[in-house]
Amino acid sequence: MDLFLLKKVFSTAIMPLNIVLILLIISAFFFKKRPSISFKCLMSALALLIVSSIPVVADRLMLPLENNYQAFTQSSKPVDYIIVLGSWHSMNDALPVTSQLNASALQRMIETLRIYKLHPEARIITSGHHSVDTVSHAQKMKQALILLGVHKQKIITENFPKDTEEEAQLISPRVRGTNVVLVTSAVHMPRAMKYFQTQGVDPIPAPTAFGVKNINSPKGWQYYIPNSKNLQKTTTAWYEMLGRAVQWLKELL
């Protein structure tokens, strides 16, 4: 098993829902032999599931990660490159290419188009491999952008990066010393900016796909009731916090 796959397996295993499943398995295993341990694991799993699914908890975890950079308005000087970091897509030729992109990729692509309309002088760099599809994620994003009116010669693809660190390593030599805009999800932006800055590039952040739209807006009783959508938000925030911890540890070593 290579290091990248090992990292993905480990990070997936310690996500909130998978921790709940592990606790339930332990609870079932000790149900007859050690009832007290079984009960504690069961209650821990239930508590984690409920807390992770409450909107107020999910928002409070997301907000410090998303609140580091403001939305992009317009650069005071010409933009040379718009870098849109990779996400994911599902391979299905029966669907239009825009429908093959997952929600995160679609939001990043829309933000890229918005910025491109403000700065048509820029070239767009799409990024990302795909472990299943024969077409890389970078190529799929390029196809979607072309479908929506961007000329193919304005788009550069980086087809091989498997994660954000590799994206920064492979893209930075091309854009170093130029005026660059970086597009990625708001929750992911702090980690992405750090990787590019480490490579000698200081891009203009263009965060998108905000999970917390307005923390100060009026909230109804539903805001304190668990739901699956907020479990996903908690998972995303937890994943980013782990990613930033790993990034910090690498800097120390």
Which structural traits does this protein have?
Rossmann fold, 5-stranded parallel sheet, 5 strands
| CATH-defined topology of the largest domain | Rossmann fold
Overall body shape:
elongated
- Mean pLDDT, nearest integer? 94
Q: Low-confidence parts, pLDDT < 50 over ≥5 residues?
A: none
Distance between the termini: 23 Å
Major sheet: 5 strands, parallel
CATH superfamily of the largest domain: HUPs
In sequence order, what are the helices and strands, one letter per element? HHHHEHHEHEHEHEH
Portion of residues in beta strands equals 5-15%
Helix percent reads 40-55%
How many separate helices?
10
Query: In the CATH hierarchy, what is the class of the largest domain?
Result: Alpha Beta
Radius of gyration in whole Å, from Cα?
A: 20 Å
* Adjacency order of strands in the biggest sheet: 3-2-1-4-5
Report the strand count: 5
The CATH architecture of the largest domain can be given as 3-Layer(aba) Sandwich
Counted up, domains total 2
